[in-house]
Amino acid sequence: RRFKSRESLLSSQRPWLIIDYSINNPPTSNCGDGTCNGTETKQTCLQDCKVCGDGTCDAPYEDLNNCAADCQQENPTTTITSQAIADIWLEGNFNTNSYDFLIAGLQSGTEKKRTLLKFDVSTLAGKSVNSAKLQLYYDYCHGGTPLAPAEIRLHRVKKSWEENIATRDKRTSSEYWSTPYLDFTNDADSIIAGSLQIDAQGTYNIDITNLVKTWVNGIYPNNGLLLWNTEENGDGIMLGICDRRFKSREFSEAIKRPKLIIEYSSSPVASCGNGLCDSTETKQSCLQDCRAC
Question: pTM of this prediction?
Answer without folding.
Answer: 0.67
